[in-house]
Structures are given as C-alpha cells and as structure tokens.
Amino acid sequence: MNTRLSGVTFKHVLLPVWIAAFRYHDKVFRFLVNGQTGKVTGKAPLSWFKILLFIAFIAGIIATIVVLTRR
Question: Are 29 and 13 in contact, with CB atoms under 8 Å apart?
Fold first, then answer.
C-alpha cells in the first residue's frame, strides 16, 4: 500500500480554557485553567512572612517530638 499526502494543513483545536486575573497588593496575577484536564497554570502570590512562620511551626513540632522522646 502506498500513501501519498498533499495539501496537509493545521487545524486549530478549540478547548474550553478559562482565563482569569486578580489583583493582590497592587500586583496583577493571571492564571489559566484547562477545562479538559483541569490543569491550572500561573503564579500565586507568596507571603514570605507566612512561609517562614510555617517553617518555624514545623521546626517547633520536630523539636517538641525530639524533647519528648528523649525523656
């Protein structure tokens, strides 16, 4: 069997995609949601104070466990 292709073109595939943006501390954050897979892309606002507070909380739990297990 011989197959010959000619005039091959690209067709766009239209998928449900939701595009949104929100403002947080005078910065605009945009994100996209793929309606077929549910995958979300974009950057989230980060609070370094809350991240450091969470790390200190976890370190406190680990320190408490170490102190209680050594008794």
Answer: no
**28 has which bridge partners?**
23
pTM above 0.70, yes or no: no
Is residue 36 within 8 A of residue 22, CB to CB? The reply is no
CA angle 13, 16, 19 (to 5 degrees): 115
DSSP code, position 26: T
CB 20 within 8 A of CB 30: yes
Q: What CA–CA distances, in Å, run from 29 to 32, 50, 66?
A: 10, 19, 41
Q: What percent of the chain has pLDDT over 90?
A: 31
